[in-house]
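tokens incoming
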């Protein structure tokens, strides 16, 4: 299947498409960088736990809302869904990409299990160092882990639709296809500016890999699966090393400090 980047059967971008691109590539990253993530960093340890759950929910609502607007307007204009990667999967490219994705899922699962089962304290120290830049965002409790799975699935579906489907179609109408693919990956990295320069670079590289899966498979289904799995897998690693067991109160414990008996 050949991707319909650019105008093609979907027609050219309209004014509302320009607005949506600004929302996805500028307004959403600014919100995350200046408001969403800093709230977590400023919160104290008690409020931060509640803040994480609220952050997951807020991010999910925004991404689902943007994705819904894109799909509704796309269908309302009679544009073909395959033009934004939502066509029926099939063909050798899809099965090749699916096989590659399954191999990656197996490797990442093996890697995660090896890390969490390792008795070497240096392994734990190394993992904690890797997690430190995003520590405020990562799950620590069972409830937060469930919320993190939810936002991971949201990112897998919505970010692929917005950045790989809609944005690449839009860019393909303005620049050559190869430039659109590279620029799309760069904008995906910049959308994660709250992770710092290293996070932007790493996310941009991941974006390029997802672009390759999109091009080879001819649809978004495989990139969606891999994106969601990578996020969930990372959350499980973080939860394993950062979780805080809730200790039951001791029967002989007195009243909390500052309260009368």
């Amino acid at each position: 299947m050949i991707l319909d980047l650019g105008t093609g059967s979907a027609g050219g971008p309209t004014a509302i498409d320009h607005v949506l691109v600004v929302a996805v590539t500028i307004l959403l990253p600014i919100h995350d960088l200046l408001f969403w993530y800093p709230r977590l960093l400023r919160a104290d340890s008690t409020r931060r736990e509640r803040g994480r759950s609220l952050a997951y929910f807020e991010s999910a609502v925004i991404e689902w809302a943007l994705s819904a607007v894109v799909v509704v307007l796309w269908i309302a204009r009679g544009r073909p869904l395959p033009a934004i990667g939502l066509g029926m999967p099939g063909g050798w490219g899809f099965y090749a990409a699916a096989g590659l994705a399954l191999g990656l899922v197996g490797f990442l699962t093996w890697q995660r299990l090896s890390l969490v089962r390792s008795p070497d304290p240096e392994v734990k120290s190394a993992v904690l160092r890797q997690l430190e830049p995003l520590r405020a965002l990562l799950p620590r409790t069972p409830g937060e882990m469930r919320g993190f799975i939810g936002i991971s699935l949201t990112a897998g579906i919505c970010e692929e639709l917005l950045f790989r489907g809609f944005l690449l179609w839009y860019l393909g109408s303005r620049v050559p296809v190869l430039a659109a693919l590279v620029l799309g990956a760069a904008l995906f990295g910049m959308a994660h500016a709250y992770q710092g320069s290293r996070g932007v670079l790493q996310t941009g590289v991941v974006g390029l890999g997802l672009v390759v899966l999109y091009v080879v498979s001819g649809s978004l289904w495989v990139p969606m699966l891999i994106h969601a799995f990578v996020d969930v897998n990372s959350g499980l690693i973080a939860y394993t090393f950062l979780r805080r067991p809730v200790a039951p109160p001791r029967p002989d414990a007195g009243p909390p400090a500052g309260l009368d008996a």
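note: The mean pLDDT is 89.
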